[in-house]
Structure formats: structure tokens, C-alpha cells
Amino acid sequence: MKRRIDIKHIASLAKLSFDDQETAILEKNFESILDFAGELPILVDADDMSDVLELDKLRDDHISAGISVDILLKQAPSSLNGFISVPKVIEN
Amino acid sequence: MDLTLLSVIELSEALKKHEITSIEIAEAYLQRIAKKDGEIGAYITVCNQGTLEASKNADTSLSDIAGIPVAVKDNICTKGITTTCASKMLYGYVPPYDASVIEKLKSAGSFVLGKLNMDEFGMGSSTENSALKLTRNPYDYDRVPGGSSGGAAAAVAAYEAPFAIASDTGGSIRQPAAFCGVVGMKPTYGSVSRYGLVAFASSLDQIGPITRTVRDNRLIFNIICGKDARDSTTAESVYERDAIDISSLRIAVLSELMDSASADVKEKIIKAASKLERLGAQIDILSLPEIKSALSAYYIISSAEASSNLARYDGVRYGYRVKNFDDIDDMMIQSRSEGFGEEVKRRIMLGTFALSTGYHDAYYKRAKHVQRAVINAFDRIFKSYDLILAPTTPGVAFRFGEMKNDPTAMYRQDICTVPASIAGLPALSLPVGKNAAGLPIGAQLIGAAFSENLIYSVAELLEREVKYCGL
């Protein structure tokens, strides 16, 4: 069965954009990667999947000092009056 | 005496006897880096001043690594020192905190010598995917050092660092260690805290040491392992079986992994097996058909997790943001498209696809089933065997550009290392010889969960037998 991969759709989900040349390369890549990775056998019952890696341990919720706002804001590409600034999100 | 030629343990002994000082070690390494790194290109950042200052204040009584500097892969956060993941996306990012492993090393009296080159965000097997620079294999400058921890393995092999701390998701510590003739350990998932490690595939990522000797590796591992409240996947582990009786050991050699290896690699692994056999171990060749699908499952699972983990790079809170954009969506899309390199975008795309409606069950879910089958298969083997011996890589270090046109050719480089990764098992690579061209070959010892002590003990025996000679 020939898979039809919609690169533009996946790119929009991933918040990436590609020009026509990059899209063509990705289409080719996807074909060979899915040939390589796509033929996975079904090996065990789904019931057995509950504990693949046991990630159910949670620590107690203690309040402790975090990193100061000033230091964190220094990492932001743009900030204003103690806030991270971004382009307008909501339309008028 | 050239201090860079000494192992960590030798440095520590000399420090304790007051034969040398921490300042002399720091100066020796900084000089070595200044002289050599122009050719090798292992470092993204060298902490000249910080290293000298820390060495002056070093309290050499703190531990066996006190006063000895560490080089760190550039995806592990170091407070006040740029951490780039070798990506344009994080170029210039200065973490406001130390990773837990860095805290542990610092409280043991070590200090950061510099940050090491890698494949961008850990995605690659040659370090060619670094957006910042090229790292050469110290054994042959026309060849790759392996990856993604290529800078770490090259720095340790070329005596530009006494030891390094790196990360391994599908082989990123072991494969470059094999290519550069050094010792690399990927510990059991959960034995070393990942707090402060920039996430690639969280259920597979693990931090471990790269060293020139097995004893050094064990020393560093014992300092960095243990439970950490800031990483809920860490375990308070019990590492048993320190002393071993080699004559009671049963070691399995997996035919599927042997078949994937080139003749020169295979020859050295067989030699290593017969050395262990001569020491009294029982060696059996076993088949584990499940691991044939491990590589495919690995690329689906790791890319799926990467697509989720790397969603945080949106140009809003930190990292790269484009200058001109129409609206917030355009800002995110453009920042991500310009900030990430080709391979990172390819994996985000693959992961997004594998998790998307209509494909999730056929790819991601099925890959998780394969993962479960591989875990079960290893469990079965470790009921009757103590360790698995395997090649670390299918071949020796390849030439730059050799895998450029087909991403799956590069992915296949990880065939021997991903089985232990997707099963969360500890696996160590140590050099067991060189091929006719003088390129290093690594053997891998894979153990049951939390069997690091056993792995180290057998690796020490093997190291003594092999008498590998570095650069």
C-alpha cells in the first residue's frame, strides 16, 4: 500500500514551515523512513501496556524558593514592565 | 609530567599526596585545549577564567574527584555558562540553574572546564548535525567522532578533558565512545537524575560518564547516581554484586547484533568473548528476534516524544525569536523553522506524524508494543544470563558526509545501542581493539536493570585483558 503523507498538514500541526524544495525532500525522506520504521509487527496485547516504564511516582508538593522573575525575564526575547511580551493574540 | 595523560583516579591520588595541585591540573587542561581543540573542535565553550578560579578554591578533601575538572555536553544546564544544545534555537542561552548532576559534581569538588559539541538536541550519530561547529575524530581527522556526544568522546580521547558528562537516548554516549576509543556508560533509566538535561525523549534520555578507564567511569557514576526529588523517574537503587566470581558468570552474545556488524568489529567482539571464556565465564550465542524491530520502534517513540518536548521552543519565553513577523502564529512558525536544523525538524515532523489522528495506532502504539516485547525478551534472557556482550556499533567511525543523503543509513548506526535504550537497561561501551587502519572498536556490556556494579566489574576484567592503548 502506498502511503500518502501530507507534509503541509503535519507541518501545520508541528508549527513549522517548509518551502517547496524542502517539502519535496521531506516527502522523499518520509517514504524511506516509513519503509524503514513503518513495518512494525503487533507483538503483545494492549493489556500488557500499562507499565511500560513506571512513571507514577510523584514527590510531595513542598513550596520552595524558585528562580527570580528578573533572571527569567532576561531569557525572554522581549519583555515589558515585568512581563514577557508577545504579539497581540486576541483580535479586536 | 604531563598531567593530562593521567586518569581521574591517578590525578586524585597525586592530589591527596600533595604531589600536584588542582591549579596545575586546570592549567594543564586549558593549555591542552588551547593547543589541540583548533584541530579537534570538541568544545563549544571553554571556561578559562572559571576553571582557574575554581581550581584555586578547590577543596581536595571533598571526594575522589575533588579538584578535578569536568567537561559537560552542551545539553546539560550549567548555571551562568551558555548551554546551546548545539542549536541556533538556544544560541546564547544562559541557564539560571545547574542540572542536578552538575550540583552533585560541584559538591564533590569538581568544576566545569567547558561545554562540548553534539548533534543538535542530541539528534544524530556523527555530531555533523551541530549547528555550531565540526568535531573531528581524534584518531582520523577525516572521520566523525560519532554522536550525539561526539564532543564529549573526542575531548576525553584527545586528553582535552579528564572526564566528561554526557547523555544517551539511543546510543549517544556509547557509540561515540566506541568511535573514539573511550569508555562510555548509559546507566539504567532512573539511576541518574535528568533534572537540568534538555529533554529530547524523556522516557529514554539518561545521563552518564565518558572516561578513559573503566575504574574512572565507575567512580563518576557512583557520584552522580541516586534519587532526586526533582526527577520523579529516579529510583533509590540498590546496586548489588560488587565482588564477582567470573567462573560463575553466564554471558550471552546476541546473534542478531553480531550479524549487523562488519568483519573487523565482529572479530574483536569474538576475541573479547573468548577472553572472558578463558577467565572462566560461560559464553552462549543466543537469538533475540524481537530486537530486529527495536530500531524502528526507537525512532518512532523518540521522535514522538521529541515532537512534544520541542514544542516548548516557540520564541516566546526564551530561545530564538525572528525579528519580523505578521502575528503570533507566524512568529512561532518562523522562529521554529529558522531556529531548528534539518534533522531536528525531520524528527519533529516524524513524531508529529506518528502521533497524529489516523496514524497513532499504526505507528506510536505499535512501537510501544515492540518496546514491551523487547523488555520482556531481555527479562527472559536475564533469568538465565548475567550479562550480554555485543558490538557497540556495526562498524568503525565513518567519513564526514558518508551518511548525508539517506537519513535511515544514519539511523541504522544505532542498531546495537537502541535495544538497551528502549528497555531502560544499563549498557557500557569499552574499547577492545583497533582495526587494521588503527580505528577503535567498542564492545558493549548490557546488564539487567541496576546491575551497573556487575557491568563495571566485568568491564574492568576485560579492560585488563585487552590492554587497549589510547592515542
What does this protein structure show overall?
The complex is a heterodimer of chains A (92) and B (471). Chain A is built from 3 helices and 2 strands, in the order αααββ. With 92 residues, chain A is mainly α. Chain A has a domain of 31 residues. In chain A, a hairpin with a 2-residue loop joins strand 1 and strand 2. The radius of gyration of chain A is 23 Å and the shape is flat. By secondary structure, chain B is of the alpha/beta class. Chain B has a domain of 222 residues: Amidase signature (AS) enzymes, CATH 3.90.1300.10. In chain B, helix 10 packs across helix 12. Chain B is globular. The model of chain B has no long low-confidence stretch (mean pLDDT 95).
Topology:
The complex is a heterodimer of chains A (92) and B (471).
Chain A: H1 7-13, H2 20-37, H3 69-75, E1 79-80, E2 83-84
Antiparallel strand pairs in A: 1-2
Chain B: H1 8-16, H2 22-40, E1 43-46, H3 48-56, E2 70-73, H4 100-107, E3 112-116, H5 150-157, E4 164-168, H6 174-180, E5 183-186, E6 206-211, H7 214-224, E7 250-254, H8 255-259, H9 263-278, E8 282-286, H10 294-309, H11 328-339, H12 342-355, H13 361-384, E9 387-391, H14 407-411, H15 418-422, E10 427-434, E11 440-447, H16 452-466
Number of strands of chain B: 11
Strand content of chain A: under 5%
Tell me the name of the CATH class of the domain at 3-224 in chain B: Alpha Beta
Q: What is the percentage of strand-forming residues of chain B?
A: 5-15%
What is the name of the CATH topology of the domain at 3-224 in chain B? Amidase signature (AS) enzymes
Mean pLDDT of chain B: 95
Largest sheet of chain B: 11 strands, mixed
Shape of chain A: flat
Distance between the termini of chain A: 48 Å
